[in-house]
Amino acid sequence: MLADKLTKLLKHELKDIAHSTRPADLVHFGQDWTRFYTPNPSVIFYPDNTEQVQHIMRVAYENDQAVVPSGGRTGYSAGAVATDGEWVISLVRLNQIGDFNAVNQTVQVGAGVITEQLQIFAEEQGLMYPVDFASAGSSHIGGNIATNAGGIKVLRYGLTRDYVMGLTVVMADGELLHLNKGLVKNATGPDLRHLMIGSEGILGIIVAAEMKLIKPPPAQMVMLLSLGSLAAVMQTFENAQRRLTLSSFEFFSDRALKRVMAHRSLDNPFDDVHPFYVLLEFDEDEDAAMAVFEDGLEAGEITDGIIAQSLDQAEQLWQYREGISESIAEFTPYKNDISVTIDQVTDFMQRLDTLLVKEYPDFETIWFGHIGDGNLHLNILKPDKLPVADFKQQCETVNDHVYGLIRDLGGSISAEHGVGLLKKPYLSYSKSAAEIKLLKAIKNSFDSKGILNSGKVID
User: Residues in domain FAD-binding PCMH-type (predicted)?
Assistant: First the structure.
């Protein structure tokens, strides 16, 4: 849109809605945690309510103006990046927690409610919102829903999708949809709510949701184990899953541990350095935990272990896992967020490790992931003197090999970070031509002008 036309709209049709064209705000709200694209929005809007979001979309629709919905912008796939003069609609002010229904154990929340804010509210009601991840202190519920966020407790509690009982969505033309309205059973044809969950804002703008809360689990224990090989990771998981009621089973490499220790000034939890580590959280059962440890020690799979003796020590052990993303952020990591079925994890990790040694001999690679749900995070760190564009290009030359392996195993190129701009060229490795054709048809049905988060996920 021409600058003169935008200026006129901001002075007249959109004058009552808070906005900014300050360069610093355009950069800040025009990007997510991806750093491979230059943000270039034309204006940032800060609507105070759903009606203002509707009004912005009506004006955008009338003017064929592309719009990017924006939450906490903690994504890693450039799903919330505005690169081509788009209007950014920041939902940061839609941050109210509304009515709590004690009978249904549900709560109304605005899209701008921070994940941790909902977790704290649930605890105050004697309940739990179990979807959790390292960015819980800054990610928004609306963004979590738009990407179907997972995290560290999917093994036991599932994904964001499992807790969305209703959605309020603004469409491309400003029309408002109220989807499902909190019903447990609703067999009235396809559930449009589930089309919106994980759609990354290309079908509509999520402005509010009704979220399900659950009873908290029994007292939990945390155990950190060091392992001698990749094969031992899955063998330990199988044993732990048989003996324990697991909430989390997280994996990371020695390189990941070193980065966290340096970044957070933490001591090595063990006397020696070990190739791999797993962190387990489970229903309190010390005898079963010791059996897992002793079985692994006897089999030569586990080399050392720590069971937290207090809540403070449990939180300390979790830092070694949760601090990984933060500790490598300054190195502009190229992130591969990939998954296979759980039974394929061992074979997949071994084949991928062989590939990494061959294709990335000069780059530092950081492994971690959610072994219990088949999700691995492979991070390649940019060398200091290598320009970002050159680094991205070099990483992309290896994608055909990495994603080719994913395709062979029937896995996903994006387990929980979404597709956005970064993964869009590789969508065909996970979805067939027929599926992509249907996705485009759905997009056109919801947004015939192609103005909602245009260019993301599919062309």
Answer: 37-216
